[in-house]
Specification:
Strand content of chain A: 15-25%
Helix content of chain A: 25-40%
CATH superfamily of the largest domain in chain A: Bira Bifunctional Protein, Domain 2
CATH architecture of the largest domain in chain A: 2-Layer Sandwich
Largest interface: A-B, 106 and 106 residues
Oligomer: homodimer
CATH topology of the largest domain in chain A: BirA Bifunctional Protein, domain 2
Number of helices of chain A: 15
Distance between the termini of chain A: 51 Å
Structural class of chain A: alpha+beta
Chain lengths: ~425, ~425
């Protein structure tokens, strides 16, 4: 029966890795999760869909053209576009049963129907950790988020330095200059200093009709950059009480970070860190690769006043951090040592030794070594080629002679060295 | 500013666990994944959406009312309802680059818009492992799937026995009886023996107008149940060559399972295992909890002739196994020892010792112990209560006196025993 075939293709802009890449991705996920668990964050796994009224609460029900929306029977739902709205919905729904401070992490897919382009996906992973307080939340938690970055990226062998600032300090300064009406625009202008430089920022501020003397203070402010001493210097810049209060909060966080064992190589203060979202109300931070700051932030986050204001009157302040997963994965792929397979050992029969191969695989697996038998009806040579192509570090060859002696040939695929060994000796090397 | 609040609720029928349950779920996932990795299966993570023409290939484009479908601009897509069609699409798309046999596992969500009811979800986890061959595929792989069940459920401390049969044997028998035209109906009838018993099945077969003598053979067949000896007995039942061929395939699989180190407690042959799907063409199997067979199968799978026939002419036979995740999770929740938190140790300051608490947390985390500081502005008593409520196994209390001596109080929350120890001694106990 001849049928017309359908061309196998996937949706454009939807992330799908080849299995060898997926191995690297899974290893990355495992390491990130291990750190979250070690910091006692709880896992959350919300549905990929939410009711439209929940997801569109922020926009007052307006549907953004980037959002995937379904209407099916009486169900009006959207695919989530981030993990923050689902967290707010979850916390509001379960506020009477969860324990505060509520520390949760979630790594999951989110959806935005924008035109696909390089580095932009319609389906993409988000990785968020947040700590939500009930009414109030200690600044220890802001420090905890900074520590998460340091620990996660150490685990990934990609050390970062976290750069810390505060929206509160910035707001205090702007307010001390009597320009609070223009706060959002000033923040947007200052945020561009890395891109357009000092003169570009000055120009933008002039367009906002801000006096030259004030512009100087603002530019001096975003140029403050360094360790605890920088905070001391900042204090001289402005006598506004909100400003000084913000600086002393940063000093408090500095104390916590030192107590946690972090050093100057792990974090610094940089008042050019603004974060675009007006959502943030206190501490803000971004993580940069130590050996490649110019690649841009690999994660960011900060403190917000109220997580779930659309859903509840209860005040739930929080602080959160997120990691740019696609970006991180791209970097890991470039730096990874070609580990593209979980397999530690391929076992290849030479002659009628399949039974013995299966027994050895069972023995190794039982002892936590990832092993598999190449059992298909193919030549020995093609199987050795396959092991090589799959980048398997060790091969065991079992021939009829070896079976008699209870010894097997272990080949190290990196050095091409071969040894004849018992199964216990093989385990010793692979285990 | 007083705003009207939106009621926080989630979509009905969409799975969402409380964080404490999610911890159990994550531990379950980790254990399952570890076994797949140890067996050298590669991970796959396909998008949750597929083009409608792909997902509906099977039905010739007819849309099933249970499927969530979007039309957005030029995109016509559906949420996946299983992980098998995406696998077929992936393999067909990448057939020239992937290595066969292709061993992949995928654990992910799937969607069916049916009316929610107990144990039935609109969004649910599927867990599949499949081995796909190019043209042909050794029966070792059928044995490998059986071994996966045994290893996974040992890891989960829920030992299973896998019951194995073969659609090929059944087809051979029916064909030997000259009733191949009625094969599908006969299979459906025999499949019901667990539910409606021997007499019920006889009645159904009579309704199919099958002679009494043939009914006896069919019923004798599905009653065959046991170890390798059962296969010897089965051979006497029919002399059809397809039948005998099927039995000898099962014997071959039996040999592989023994070589892999499995015993009679791990698997048996049971010709009452039919599997509903006509998709299966060879070996079929189901896994049952040893201590609760009557709870029904916790997983099942089998051999199929051709994975991706809708998309390619290339013959890609496969064998796969899947695990019923909602069911399994329900059982694990009942049997789990209340491990509802990753946290091994809560650290509670008594007086002004927050710095020392943070330092100890950093030290423990660095040494892979999950620890956290209860830093909020609450009473010591309420923090001890909280640790108890969160089911944390150990608490360290750091008071001002302890700081001077460099020793801390470790409380075992299970026994209520307290000891005064150095941080190294604490690590020794918790590590």
């Amino acid at each position: 029966m001849e049928e017309k075939k359908i061309v196998a293709r996937k949706l454009q802009g939807f992330w799908e890795l080849q299995p060898e890449q997926q191995v690297i991705f899974e290893n990355m996920l495992d390491k990130i999760k291990d750190v979250f668990k070690r910091h006692c964050f709880l896992p959350l796994d919300t549905p990929v869909m939410e009711l439209s009224e929940i997801l569109l609460a922020k926009s007052g029900g307006d549907i953004d053209k980037e959002i995937y929306r379904f209407v099916k029977g009486s169900t009006d739902a959207c695919l989530r576009y981030d993990l923050t709205v689902p967290l707010a919905r979850f916390v509001a729904m379960n506020q009477n049963t969860i324990s505060f401070p509520f520390k949760r992490f979630q790594i999951g897919k989110a959806y935005r129907g924008e035109r696909p382009q390089k580095g932009r996906f319609r389906e993409f992973y988000q990785c968020d950790a947040d700590i939500i307080g009930d009414g109030e939340l200690s600044l220890v938690n802001d420090a905890e988020c900074v520590k998460l970055y340091v620990d996660i990226f150490k685990e990934l062998a990609l050390p970062v330095q976290v750069e810390i600032s505060s929206r509160k300090v910035l707001y205090g300064l702007v307010s001390g200059l009597n320009e609070e009406d223009k706060f959002a625009n000033i923040a947007t202008a200052l945020d561009k200093i890395d891109k357009i430089g000092e003169s570009g920022v000055c120009e933008l501020l002039q367009q906002l009709e801000i006096e030259q003397s004030k512009i100087k203070v603002l530019v001096d402010f975003v140029k403050i950059n360094g360790n605890a001493q920088a905070l001391e210097n900042a204090q001289k810049l402005c006598s506004d009480s909100a400003f000084l209060d913000g600086v002393s909060q940063l000093k408090e966080i500095d104390g916590y970070l030192k107590a946690m064992g972090l050093g100057e190589e792990d974090y610094k203060f940089n008042f050019a860190i603004i974060r675009g979202h007006n959502y943030y109300t206190g501490t803000v931070f971004e993580a940069y690769l130590k050996n490649n700051r110019s690649a841009g932030a690999i994660g960011g986050g900060g403190r917000y006043d109220d997580l779930a204001g659309y859903f509840t009157d209860r005040k739930l302040p929080g602080v959160g951090m997120s990691i740019g997963m696609s970006r991180l994965f791209e970097i890991l792929q470039q730096t990874s040592q070609q580990v593209s397979n979980f397999c530690k050992c391929a076992i290849i029969p030479l002659g009628e030794t399949l039974q013995q191969c299966l027994a050895l695989a069972g023995y190794l697996q039982q002892n936590l070594v990832a092993a598999e038998v190449y059992a298909e009806n193919k030549s020995f040579k093609s199987k050795m080629k396959e092991a090589n192509k799959r980048n398997v570090p060790f091969v065991v060859i079992i021939g009829a002679d070896e079976v008699k002696e209870g010894k097997y040939t272990l080949k190290d695929m990196t050095t091409s060295q071969q040894q004849t060994l018992s199964k216990e000796e093989i385990l010793n090397i692979l285990g």
